[in-house]
Amino acid sequence: MPEAEKFGVAIAGLGTVGSGVAQILSESRSGEQGLFLKSILEREPEKGPASQWFQKIPEAFVKNQEAILEDPEIRVIVETIGGTGFAREFTLEALKRGKHVVTANKDLIASHGSELCEMAQSQDRHYLFEAAVAGAIPVLRLLREYFQTRDILELEGILNGTTNYILSEMESRSLGFEETLKKAQELGFAEQDPTNDIKGFDARYKLVILIYLICGKWISPSEIYLEGIDQLELPDFEYASRMGRSIKLIAHMQRMKKMENVFFRLMSCR
Q: Whole-model pTM?
């Protein structure tokens, strides 16, 4: 059996997500598939999740992005930096230098997806973001490869697990919002800074990405009407119950002749 083609991989940013990628790449099966971890871009490797990897493979760590961008062995960069500032600049430069880029940075994709995809296409590179929506469920791949997306007229669903957990707990246990949020954080279901989740931004970013794959165009996140869940109180759930409904943060996209009708709503039938 011929040996698999070798793909050197670099991870940019070694937080929680980046550490998970490093763990996968360190497993023997990844090596059999031709992937190997070559470098890790991390400016403070002695701190946070990066520290355990710095102890194991200190030789892989670099602090200068040029060390990655100029390395001919590195063909794929996994961007786990987060945010839209440096991550955008770094991704554009990586694509210009002929690197393939993989990311789950929903904020970056939703805000600058058009620019980044155009750059990737112009350089004949891949800019891939399967994990940005639905985690390990291959929703984006299904839309790309198996569906005639022009036939999809409507999309509706819950796109954020954190808010769904909070709303379900508030409804079933009659707990207040702050108490439920604290519990979600203790269980690891919510970030210590939950703004993107409870304000609905995370779900909105995902909807922008889905709209692109279904309709073939990027829209600005600000074009989607949105209400978060942080203003909800127990009387809201009591009122919904009397109407035979539940409160959920539901994304909705409906394709129309001239434009897409997109919004979030906070009520659903039981």
A: 0.89
Tens of pLDDT along the chain (270 residues)?
Answer: 456 678 899 999 998 889 999 998 887 555 567 889 999 999 999 988 899 999 999 999 999 999 999 999 999 999 999 999 999 999 999 999 999 999 999 999 999 999 999 999 999 999 999 999 988 889 999 888 887 667 888 889 999 999 999 999 999 999 999 999 999 999 989 989 999 999 999 999 999 999 999 888 899 999 998 989 999 999 999 999 999 999 999 999 888 766 567 777 766 655
Dist. CA 44–CA 13, nearest whole Å: 10
Contact 103, 132 (CB under 8 A): yes
Indicate which residues carry an active-site annotation.
206
Domain ranges in the chain are 7-132, 149-269
Q: Does domain 149-269 have CATH number 3.30.360.10?
A: yes
Pairing of strands 35-41, 61-62: parallel
* CATH topology (fold) of 7-132: Rossmann fold (3.40.50)
Contact 178, 184 (CB under 8 A): no
